[in-house]
Write a structure and sequence with these properties.
The structure holds two protein chains of two kinds.
Chain A (H helix, E strand, L loop, with lengths): L8 H134 L5 H15 L6
Helix pairs in contact in A: 1-2
Chain B lengths: L16 E3 L2 E2 L2 E2 L2 E2 H21 L8 H21 L7 H17 L12 H23 L17 H13 L1 H25 L1 H8 L2 H36 L4
Antiparallel strand pairs in B: 1-4, 2-3
Classes of the chains: A mainly alpha, B mainly alpha.
Chain lengths: 168, 247
């Protein structure tokens, strides 16, 4: 086996030491720090991006909450305006209606009073006519005239009985 | 080049001088082995710097591959040895990449597999072993010796267990280096032997021997990656001992 020839030992050991030393120095001084840098840079970049996204997420949440709050406030305000307008209008309507109803009932009262007055007047005229007619009928039948006041009372009593106490 | 090995399956492990050099009695000639080590280092540098030359936050394919290896080794070290061992990350990374590229490059026909030489794997394993031992003594002083005393064991058994622990600790560089060396050498030798049979056996068995060699090549690729992982993983576990002595 050529491997066991002591003559090949020393040159191989010497060149192993030289080449490995070169390799180690190049790797340790230049190549590996470069790789470490780029890996660290990437890690930082990812961490940064994650942090930024986290911040943006928080911001959007805040904005959403703000928006929700504003929305709720606007809704409440609109509701209060609406109900205020409703009560105001209701009040106005009620006032107008009361006024109109009052006026109408006044007119109705006045008309009723006029009707009652006219009715009473008509009754009086009717009584007068009845008394006169009765006087004339009695005079034609009996040939005697009756005292006007006695006749009036008798006719009035008859009318009252006929109307069931309702009239006059 | 020794001629008796020319057509042997072991010829691929032959080391020959390209430029003979000597300094203070030490032979440091540039050999094919040494040259391939430099090629491995150059390829690793190309792979890593090529992937990171236009590094982006969002990585391309090549950059992803480099980052994947980086994170794989990083996680392995973190899980096996804890966060304190972080400063040895460049070493473990270099170790893994060196063995991985050596093993994979050895799969290319005509190349030399440096990890198929016991002296190379022993050099790496011995360095890990010495480094861990020195680090353990620096971190814990004499307390590092507690590593050889398992807790919760009857006193009567203790002498025996301390001896066993000591032997298992001292054989670590041997097991670590022989595992890698034997896997690489055996795999490459077997491939060469069986490949040599493709034509003679093909006359009888048709394409079957060739298919078998192709399948074996796939298996060797797997072993190449696996052994690099095992070596780096065990180095991490040994490193863990230097920080956390409790069993």
């Amino acid at each position: 086996m050529p491997q066991l020839d002591p003559a090949v030992f020393s040159p191989q050991l010497v060149w192993l030491a030289i080449s490995f030393a070169i390799l180690y120095l190049v790797m340790a001084r230049s190549a590996l720090p470069k790789i470490a840098n780029i890996l660290g840079e990437r890690e930082n970049r990812i961490a940064d991006d994650l942090r930024v996204s986290e911040e943006l997420k928080d911001q959007s949440k805040e904005l959403e909450a703000k928006h929700d709050k504003a929305h709720a406030e606007a809704k409440a305000e609109a509701n209060s305006i609406l109900s205020a307008a409703r009560t105001q209008m209701q009040a106005a309507i009620d006032a107008k209606r009361n006024k109109a109803e009052g006026k109408l009932s006044d007119e109705v009262h006045a008309a009723e009073a006029k009707i009652a007055e006219a009715k009473a007047e008509a009754m009086d005229d009717l009584e007068d006519m009845a008394v006169e007619a009765c006087g004339a009928i009695v005079e034609r039948l009996t040939g005697k005239s009756i005292g006007a006041s006695g006749l009036r009372d008798a006719v009035k009593g008859e009318i009252r009985v006929a109307m069931g106490g309702k009239g006059a | 080049m020794a001629s008796p090995l020319e057509h042997s399956p072991l010829a691929q492990f032959e080391v020959y001088q390209i430029i003979p050099l000597e300094f203070a009695g030490v032979d440091w000639s540039i050999t094919n082995s040494g040259l391939w080590m430099l090629v491995i280092v150059a390829l690793i540098w190309l792979f890593v710097s090529g992937g990171m030359s236009r590094a982006h936050i969002v990585p391309g394919r090549w950059q992803s591959m480099v980052e994947m290896v980086y994170e794989f080794i990083s996680n392995m070290l973190h899980e096996a040895a804890g966060p304190e061992a972080r400063r040895f990350f460049p070493f473990i990374f270099s170790l893994f990449m060196f063995i991985l590229f050596a093993n994979l490059l050895g799969m290319v026909p005509g190349t030399f597999t440096v990890t198929s030489h016991i002296i190379v794997t022993f050099g790496l394993a011995g360095f890990v072993f010495l480094g861990v031992t020195v680090l353990g003594v620096v971190n814990h002083g004499f307390g590092f010796l507690r590593l050889f005393v398992p807790s919760g064991v009857p006193i009567a058994l203790l002498p025996l267990l301390v001896v066993i622990e000591l032997i298992s600790y001292l054989t670590r560089p041997i097991s670590l280096s022989v595992r890698l060396f034997a896997n690489m050498m055996a795999g490459h030798t077997m491939m060469k032997v069986i490949a040599g049979f493709v034509v003679p056996l093909g006359l009888i068995g048709g394409w079957a021997p060739l298919l078998f060699v192709v399948a074996l090549t796939g298996l060797e690729m797997l072993i190449a990656v696996l052994q690099a992982y095992v070596f780096a993983m065990l180095s991490c576990i040994y490193l863990n001992d230097a920080y956390h002595i409790e069993h």
